[in-house]
């Protein structure tokens, strides 16, 4: 089958995100990459749920891991009678779909589709694992292909010799951007906000760009105003974990304050992604609070005292007035005009 | 001799900052506290210069370490003839005074005074080590006593049941604030920005407050807007590495963007410290750039790839319009009225 990861960095190769084979889902442990290159091995779909909750993979990684987890659920249930097997797989689709609350709408699209494929396969005495894996590859291809379209629209907004600030690890759009920039020969300098607590910007985004030969500089999350004041940054761009119909953006904690600083320093903020139909208002999005212990730790070492607390909101909400363009697969929209996206697109089949 | 560190946390005890004894200066290694409690042992004043440059101690720690380093320089030169000995100690005063460029004005005040004491002692056949140590304790007492006055003026600005956000580790003012808050019985909740790259907020400030029983919560540096938007923070306060006569503030990298967010979210920003007479304008301050490698590391572990760069400005500059009050030993001033401080104070003898 055709694949869209050619010419992309290590992290974007399909098998290096998450992959099902012979009763095991292997997920690259993004919590330690590039310091260590290790894969977490999941022997049950519940292991996959836990890996997603534990941030073994993040950004678009879970989209791939979820499909692989559904293939694994079919494998796990191979000895059950049809009815019990379908129940087991349905349960898996619900648990995987709800692994993280803020993104459960997107997750559930994937797991529900896989469940339907499984039911159809079981009813027709076909192998659900095989059919789900075929769908998984189609789904990954579709996302990569779509994000290449998004990347093309983003590149159109980036002048020659710009400096771009990224936040966290936008995964597919990072891969798309790299492969398109390489083809375009546009000279671009990359600044990556390191993105505590898990440092995905410093470890993942910076690795992708630097591996592919880009001039790549890390900023700690508290250097953003300094960098903007000193004219190091021309454009801020991030992906989004949710783009609401009212033009709001839910993304990795820290995005909101970078967007606010960008506004203050006249730096453009371009959000990339596929808007979430049905998510009407930014206000309605619930922010997932994760284990605060992660904030007291860095690189696996606890540096804070024992009596100290922390909070760990995974995401924050950036209102539409701080966003210059929402860059989609069919064009770049002013956030206030996002309704046009849905008019233009009709039925969206992305995940 | 009377001392002002009673009732203060571990980090504020004089001997736990930096101390000279028997040919050695011991400096608490703040880069790893509280995870490890170790002291760097300096056998020469050059070791002290290096320790300050390597951030073994920071904030007000170097003020103490510099005086101790000068005592050590006197010890090191004990076998030299008077003239050579004075030259050696003068050289030490210059090198120690210039250990960090942004704060060299303050540093040089201490080392020059120690040098004069040493010359006087040598000319009068007295022991310069002993006299410098006496001056060191006087100087530390003076700073602690002065910062207790600053603390009193700060507390007057803090309503009951406030939540206070700190940045980095303000050292003496943190000790003063803690001891005064304990006496006042004012209920205060503390949020500490973790302050990458060295996490002084998470490790040092949070340890001081939590050790003394305060409700203490760490925020990663990218959670500030989230915390302010969710009304977790009432007041932002920081110390300053330099307060210029035009009301500008030079402080740990990250202060500028917190001050900007505070302005956006109507959170008051109170700067504590002794304004720097002679430092006319914020624009004239030179920001020290440190080894970028520190940004690619956290808790001693390198997490970034090998082809990735970084920048590491130690400080940033917050203009007076983002500061609500500059809180000094003789009162809280609007930044634009800072000239009144110098009129009120006359000759300043702080360091």
Automatic annotation (TrEMBL), chains A, B:
It is an enzyme of class 5 (isomerase). Keywords: Isomerase. Pfam families: IF-2B. One of its GO terms (molecular function) is S-methyl-5-thioribose-1-phosphate isomerase activity. One of its GO terms (biological process) is L-methionine salvage from methylthioadenosine. Its EC number is 5.3.1.23. InterPro entries: IF-2B-related, IF_2B-like_C, M1Pi_N, NagB/RpiA_transferase-like. The keyword Isomerase applies. NCBIfam families: PRK05720.1 (NF004326). Belongs to the eIF-2B alpha/beta/delta subunits family. MtnA subfamily. PANTHER family: METHYLTHIORIBOSE-1-PHOSPHATE ISOMERASE. This is S-methyl-5-thioribose-1-phosphate isomerase. It comes from Anaerococcus obesiensis.
